Amino acid sequence: MRLKSLALALSTAGLLAAAPAASASAAAPNEEPWPPGNCQSGTFCAWPNWAPPNTGPTETPSLVTTGAWAGSAPTKQFYNYTSANVEVEYHHTWQNGSTVITHCATPGGNIFYLQVIVTKVNWHGSC
Question: Which of these, 41, 58, 40, lies nearest to 49 by C-alpha position?
Fold first, then answer.
């Protein structure tokens, strides 16, 4: 019985090794869980509300930038429509105080589960 298990494991490993590698290219924006909506290519955008899945946001963004930015933008959803990583600093106020967090936004979209205030955006090759 052990020989059958070993033979099956080796056979499976051989098939996996021979299979073509998966593509490393990023998913097309319209195939992402949080697509860019009305964010233009080459920009980082943030919106104060969540958009319906698969469509992306259509409301006016609270933040649109092509470079370093500082200010105050209410945010629940963002899209990094660039090829660079973007370092995003944001604040969230809890009942007992405020938290400052830095997030590395790789190209693509994502959401914050709570309303946050984005205060800084910096471009980085890797963060």
Answer: 58
Q: Residues 50, 74: contact at Cβ < 8 Å?
A: no
CA dist 107 and 83 (Å) reads 6
User: What is d(CA 118, CA 15) in angstroms, rounded to the nearest whole number?
Assistant: 47
Report how far residue 46's alpha carbon sits from residue 49's, in angstroms, rounded to the nearest whole number.
9
* Weakest-pLDDT range from 18-32, 41-55, 63-77, 110-124: 18-32
- Whole-number Å distance between alpha carbons of 54 and 28: 12
Q: Which amino acid is at 28?
A: A
pLDDT, tens only, 11-52: 333 322 333 333 333 445 656 777 899 999 999 999 999 887
In the structure encoding, which two tokens stand for residue 69, read together? 């930015």
